[in-house]
Known about the structure:
Blueprint: H1 2-15, H2 20-31, H3 39-43, H4 45-59, E1 63-68, E2 74-76, H5 83-87, H6 96-110, E3 112-118, E4 125-129, E5 134-138, E6 150-156, E7 159-164, E8 168-172, H7 185-188, H8 190-208, E9 215-219, H9 225-239, E10 258-262, H10 272-287, H11 305-332, H12 335-339, E11 342-346, H13 349-352, H14 356-368, H15 374-380, H16 422-432
Antiparallel strand pairs: 1-2, 1-11, 3-4, 3-8, 5-6, 6-7, 9-10
Helix pairs in contact: 4-6, 4-10, 8-10
Amino acid sequence: MNRIRKLASKFKIRFNKSSDTNTNNAFYDFLGLDRNAKEDILSEATYFACMNVLRESIGKLPLKIYKYNERNGIEVAREHPLYNVLHTRPNPYMTSANFWATVEYNRNHYGNAYVWIQGYGRDTKLWILPSTDVEVWYDDAKILADNPDIYYKYSAGGKQYMFGSEEILHFKASNSLDGLVGVSVQKQLQMTIGGAVKSQKLLNKMYESGFTAKAVLNYTGSLNDANVEQLVKNIENYAKGGLKDKGVENIIPIPLGFKLDPLNVKLADNQFIEVKQYSSLQIASAFGIKPYQIGDYTKSSYASAEAQQLSFYVDTLLYILKHYEEEITYKLLSREDMDNGYFAKFNVSVILRADLATQITTLSTAVNSFLMTPNEARAKLDLGNVDGGEKLLGNGASIPVELTGSQYANNTNPDNSNGDNPDDNQRGGSDNA
C-alpha cells in the first residue's frame, strides 16, 4: 500500500512542476506515450495506417462484464463493481475508447503494453505505464518472494517500483519468443520499414527539387573554390525554382563555355512504385491488416463490406481480443467472480453489424424460430421493451422432433369398449333402423 501511495504522489509531483516542457513530458508518461518516439517510423504512411486501423478497431468495441445465468444463458452484469471501470471510465482522465486504443498503440509499437491496477472494486483505477520505462523480471531464484513469479520494474523520477504479476495487466504483441515479452512489429520488419521511410524521403526530396535530379557542370578553365561554390548555388537556385517570385521558373542560365549534364534517376527504371507497394504489403501483413484497409484494392475479392469485416475479425482481431479478455478476466475479476460465471468480453457486433434490412430479416427469423424473444430482438436494434415481448414466440406449425409424423397417425381405438368408433356407430344405426 505504501508503494501505491508513493507512486500516486509521484504522479501529483510531476504535474505540479512549473516548466511547460516538464509538464508535457509528465503528461506523455502519464498516458503511457513515449515523448522520444522515433518520428521516422511513425511518419511511414503504411505503418501509421496499420497502427491506426488496429487502435481504432479496439477502441470502438464496447468492453463489458457478462455473467452466465442459471439457465446457461449470458447476460450483461451492469451491477458488477468493475463494469463502469471497463466500459466507461478506466481512470478520471481517459474514456474507455481512448484508454484501450492507447493500450493497443503501445502493444503494437513497443511490443508490450502495461496497465497498473490501482485500488479494488468500484474504486479501481487503471493507469497506462510507459512501455519504455518497464522491465519484466522473472524471479526464479525466489529473491522477492517464496514462490517464483513475474515482476515488473517501473522506473520513474530516478526511483524504481516493483509490481507483482497480479498488479499489472500485461498485453503482449502477437509475436513472442518466450511467451513472456512481445516483439514489436518495427523490430520484426526493421529493414522493411527503414527502406519504406527512406523511399518516402527520396520522393519528398524530388518534390522539393521539382523532380530535378543531380547534374554535372562541365566547364573549361579554372575557378577557385569560392567562385565554384557561388556558381553552383546560383544554378541550383534557378533549378529548384528559388526565383519563382521574380518570374523565373523554367529557365536555367548557363555561362558561355559551360555545359550542364543532368544525371536522371527514373523511378520506372528502378521499379520504385512496385518496390514501395511490396514494402507496404509486407508491413500490412505483419500487422494482420488486409490490403483494402490501407487503400490497396487491386486484389480485393470480397463480395460485400460485411464479408470484409468478418474476415478482418476472424483473421486479425479474434486473437487480439481473446488475449485482452483472458488477461482482464484473470487479473481484474476475483476467483469468486469467475466461479460465479463472470467474465469480460468485447462486444464485436459493432463491427459485424449488417445493414438494417438484413438485420430485420435475421432477427425476424430468430424470433419465428424460438431463438429470441421480441424484446431481445428489439434490443439489437436499440429499441425499448414492449409488454408481452419477453415470451418466446414462433411458428405454430413447429412441433418437437419426437412427435414428427404423429399428425398422420390413426387416432381410432379398435378395443374401445364404449362403442366410440364412428364406423361401429354408423353400422349400429343402420341395423337399428
